[in-house]
Specification:
With 64 residues, the chain is mainly α. It has one domain. Helices cover 69% and strands 0% of the residues. Helix 2 crosses helix 3. The longest helix has 21 residues.
């Protein structure tokens, strides 16, 4: 099983590259059991969406 440190690294890397099948499955298993890492993943998704919308000139509040 992945540690929280490994999961945060994979969540970050997953923003830049396609994760392998094993990485995705391990990540899903950990996220299903760890609320802290699941929350971190949601926060990363929100920030990425907000940054993209900001760069496009859209309202950041609509990113939620």
């Amino acid at each position: 099983m992945l540690s929280c440190k490994q999961v945060t690294r994979l969540l970050s890397e997953g923003q830049d590259r396609k994760l392998t099948l094993i990485e995705r499955l391990s990540l899903r298993l950990h996220l299903a059991m760890c609320k802290g890492c699941a929350n971190f993943g949601r926060q990363m998704d929100f920030l990425r969406t907000a940054c993209r919308r900001y760069a496009d000139g859209k309202d950041v509040d609509d990113a939620r």
